[in-house]
């Protein structure tokens, strides 16, 4: 299937994935699919995760279990509030829902001593080359750029995307722009994909 633009990809995925989603509806969002909890648990299979002291997570619902795992495993969770209203740090074993993130300690990126070894995000679509399409706000790419610019990302930080198999395409590179950050690993219900 050949798409004309990113919005066509989004509309296609949102329609296809809707039967597999939990609340909220996928339209206009990063889809929160039913198997997301199991997919997030695959993060523990990555050596890079096991070796990371600090993990970044976007605030998407699909990543809730990943945020819980980070705290359960005694790692530092660096997260961003919805609509990029600031970065926060969590170390306590709480349920890192959006409401808990809003109560967390504001992160001073210049003071953060631990480097982020894993940068985790959801997606609307991603291809086998790591080209990721989000919901269209540009927040994901900006989060990555801010952490990179501030020197918070480890040199070999791994960009991990949580996705349903329906969200994975062979090649979307023809839709990508220069500012689009690329994923290194895609975790799905059936696979762990190291991108090409």
Please explain how this structure is put together.
The structure is a single chain. The chain has 196 residues and is of the alpha/beta class. Helix content is 24%, strand content 22%. The chain has helices spanning 6-17, 36-41, 47-50, 64-72, 98-103, 139-149, and strands spanning 54-57, 76-80, 87-90, 105-106, 116-121, 125-127, 132-133, 153-162, 168-169, 185-187, 192-194. The strands form 2 sheets. The protein has an 8-stranded mixed β-sheet, sandwiched between helices. Strands 7-6-9 form a 3-stranded mixed β-sheet, covered by helices on one side. A hairpin with a 6-residue loop joins strand 2 (76-80) and strand 3 (87-90). It is globular.
Secondary-structure map with pairings?
Layout lengths: L5 H12 L18 H6 L5 H4 L3 E4 L6 H9 L3 E5 L6 E4 L7 H6 L1 E2 L9 E6 L3 E3 L4 E2 L5 H11 L3 E10 L5 E2 L15 E3 L4 E3 L2
Parallel strand pairs: 1-2, 1-5, 5-8, 6-9, 8-10
Antiparallel strand pairs: 2-3, 3-4, 6-7, 10-11
Residue fraction in strands: 15-25%
Mean pLDDT score, rounded?
Answer: 93
> What is the overall shape?
globular
Number of helices: 6
Q: Over all CA atoms, what is the radius of gyration?
A: 16 Å
Strand order of the largest sheet: 4-3-2-1-5-8-10-11
Elements, N to C (H/E): HHHEHEEHEEEEHEEEE
CATH superfamily descriptor? NagB/RpiA/CoA transferase-like
User: What structural class should be given to the helix and strand makeup?
Assistant: alpha/beta
